[in-house]
UniProtKB/TrEMBL annotation:
Native organism: Hortaea werneckii (Black yeast)
UniProt KW Lipid metabolism keyword: no
Single GO biological process annotation from the record: fatty acid beta-oxidation using acyl-CoA dehydrogenase
Protein name as it appears in the record: Probable electron transfer flavoprotein subunit alpha, mitochondrial
Cofactor: FAD
GO CC terms in record: mitochondrial matrix
Sequence similarity: Belongs to the ETF alpha-subunit/FixB family.
One Pfam family per UniProt: ETF
GO molecular function terms noted in the UniProt entry: electron transfer activity; flavin adenine dinucleotide binding
General function of this protein: The electron transfer flavoprotein serves as a specific electron acceptor for several dehydrogenases, including five acyl-CoA dehydrogenases, glutaryl-CoA and sarcosine dehydrogenase. It transfers the electrons to the main mitochondrial respiratory chain via ETF-ubiquinone oxidoreductase (ETF dehydrogenase).
Subunit architecture: Heterodimer of an alpha and a beta subunit.
Keyword set, alphabetical order: Electron transport, FAD, Flavoprotein, Transport
Recorded superkingdom: Eukaryota
InterPro entries recorded: DHS-like_NAD/FAD-binding_dom, ETF_a/b_N, ETF_a/FixB, ETF_alpha_N, ETF_asu_C, Rossmann-like_a/b/a_fold
C-alpha cells in the first residue's frame, strides 16, 4: 500500500501547499494538484487517488482508509512524514515511491505451523511446513502438544523461521489422536487470531486438519506444492498429471503441505520464544491403547536420502527379497516398492511409494522392474536423481529417469550390487 501518499496528505495540514507540477512519472507518483481537497478530508479519512492515467483501463481504484494510524508502520512514520514535509516547504514535487502491496499485507499475516513429533524429534514434514510458512511472510508460530512437550518446544525454538513456539504438556494429546487434538488446536487458533494454519501432508496432518477445518467451518486445502500469494496456492491433481491453482477467501486458511515440495527449515540458529498454550482440559473420549512397530536398521523410507524400489517385474517375493535388500544395503538406502509389487505380496504395504503410498524425494531413487505408472510417478518424481532398470526401452519410467539401464534386471541388479560393494 502506498504509505507515502498518506504522509503527504498529513503534511498538507501542517504546511501551506503551493501548486505542484507533476514531474517524470516513471518509477514514482506525485501528489495531485487539488491538495486543498485532500486537506479538507484528511480529518475524517484519507482519499488516496493518483493522477488520472491516459488509459482508463490502467486506472487503479482509490484506496480509502478510515484510520491512518491503522496502516502506518512505526519505523517508517516519522522519517517519511519528515521527508514529505520538507519537500512541501521547499515548494518542489513530492515523489511518492511505489510500495509493494504484498509487503504491506505480509505485515498483517500470521501463520501457525502444527509441529508433528515422535519420541521428542520433529517430523521432517513439520520442518517443511515452517519453510512453506516463510514464503507467506508475516509472523510464524509453532504449536506442539503431548506428553513432555516442553523439551520438544525448546528444540523447536532453535528452528530457523519461528518467532514463537506454543506448547501444551498433556498426555491426553500424545500420539496426536485427532479426536482430542483438533478441539485443542482450534482453541489456540482462536486465541492467536492466525490467518494461516499449516501442517504436513502426513498421516497425522491428513487425519487432523479436516477436523480442524470442520470445527472452524472453512474449507481445507490439501497437499499444496507451491505458494503464489497469501490466498493463492498450487496443488497437483489427477496423480500429478495436472497442476491446479486455487484461490481461497476463507479465514483462517487450513492447509496441508507436501513435505517433498519444500526444503526443510534448518534446525539450528533460531531463537524463538516459548509460551504455554491454552488447554481446555476437556474430557477426551479417545484413548491411546498401543502400537506394534516393525524394527529395522535401514533408513526411514519417507526421509531417506537413497531409496531402492522394486516392482512387479521381479515376479515373486523370493526374487524381491533376493535382489532388492542386498542392493539397498550396499548403498545404505531404504527399500520401497510399487503398488503392483505390494498388491502381489512381494513387499509390505508400509514400503509402498506412490499416490496411495508415501511421497519420497531422496537424492537417489533407484528402481528395478517398475514400468512407471502415473500413480507411482506421483510419489517419487521430486527425487533429485532417478535411475531405472527395465527390459522395456519404451517403459514410461525412462521418461523421467536421469539414468537408465535397458536389460534383464535378474542379471543387471546382482552385477550392480557387486560393483557398488567393490
Amino acid at each position: 500500500m502506498p504509505y507515502m501518499r498518506i504522509f503527504v496528505a498529513i503534511a498538507t495540514l501542517q504546511v501551506k501547499i503551493r501548486k505542484q507540477e507533476p514531474g517524470d512519472a516513471s518509477g514514482a507518483r506525485y501528489l495531485g494538484k487539488n491538495s486543498s481537497a485532500i486537506a479538507a478530508r484528511i480529518s475524517s479519512l484519507a482519499l488516496l487517488e493518483p493522477p488520472s492515467p491516459t488509459d482508463d483501463r490502467a486506472r487503479p481504484p482509490p484506496l480509502v482508509f478510515s484510520s491512518c494510524s491503522s496502516v502506518m508502520v512505526p519505523p517508517l512514520r516519522s522519517g517519511l512524514l519528515r521527508q514529505a514535509t520538507t519537500c512541501l516547504r521547499q515548494n518542489r514535487p513530492t515523489p511518492v515511491p511505489r510500495v509493494s502491496r504484498n509487503a504491506a499485507i505480509q505485515r498483517l499475516l500470521s501463520t501457525l505451523a502444527v509441529l508433528e513429533q515422535r519420541d521428542g524429534k520433529l517430523n521432517m514434514s513439520s520442518l517443511a511446513s515452517i519453510s512453506a510458512a516463510q514464503k507467506l511472510g508475516g509472523s510464524i508460530h509453532g504449536f506442539v502438544a503431548g506428553a513432555n512437550t516442553k523439551q520438544v518446544a525448546e528444540e523447536a525454538a532453535k528452528v530457523q523461521g519461528l518467532e514463537k513456539v506454543i506448547y501444551v504438556d498433556n498426555a491426553a494429546y500424545d500420539k496426536g489422536l485427532p479426536e482430542n487434538y483438533a478441539p485443542l488446536l482450534v482453541d489456540n487458533i482462536k486465541k492467536g487470531g492466525y490467518t494461516h494454519i499449516l501442517a504436513g501432508h502426513s498421516a497425522f496432518g491428513k487425519n487432523l486438519m479436516p477436523r480442524v477445518s470442520a470445527l472452524l467451518d472453512v474449507q481445507q486445502l490439501s497437499d499444496i506444492t507451491g505458494i503464489e500469494s497469501e490466498d493463492t496456492f498450487i496443488r497437483p491433481i489427477y496423480a500429478g498429471n495436472a497442476i491446479l491453482t486455487v484461490k481461497t477467501a476463507d479465514t483462517p486458511k487450513i492447509i496441508t503441505v507436501r513435505g517433498t515440495a519444500f526444503d526443510a527449515s534448518a534446525t539450528e540458529g533460531g531463537s524463538a520464544s516459548i509460551e504455554e498454550g491454552v488447554d481446555p482440559k476437556a474430557e477426551c473420549l479417545t484413548e491411546w491403547v498401543g502400537e506394534d512397530l516393525a524394527k529395522t536398521d535401514r533408513p526411514d523410507l519417507a526421509t531417506a536420502e537413497k531409496v531402492v524400489s522394486g516392482g512387479r517385474g521381479l515376479k515373486s517375493k523370493e526374487e524381491f527379497d533376493r535382489l532388492i535388500p542386498p542392493l539397498a544395503d550396499a548403498l545404505g538406502a531404504a527399500i520401497g516398492a510399487s503398488r503392483a509389487a505390494v498388491d502381489s505380496g512381494f513387499a509390505d504395504n508400509s514400503l509402498q511409494v506412490g499416490q496411495t503410498g508415501k511421497n519420497v524425494a531422496p537424492q537417489l531413487y533407484l528402481c528395478a522392474g517398475i514400468s512407471g505408472a502415473i500413480q507411482h510417478l506421483a510419489g517419487m518424481k521430486d527425487s533429485k536423481v532417478i535411475a531405472a532398470i527395465n527390459k522395456d526401452a519404451d517403459a514410461p519410467i525412462f521418461q523421467v529417469a536421469d539414468v537408465g539401464l535397458v536389460g534383464d534386471l535378474f542379471e543387471l541388479v546382482p552385477e550392480l550390487t557387486e560393483k557398488v560393494k567393490a
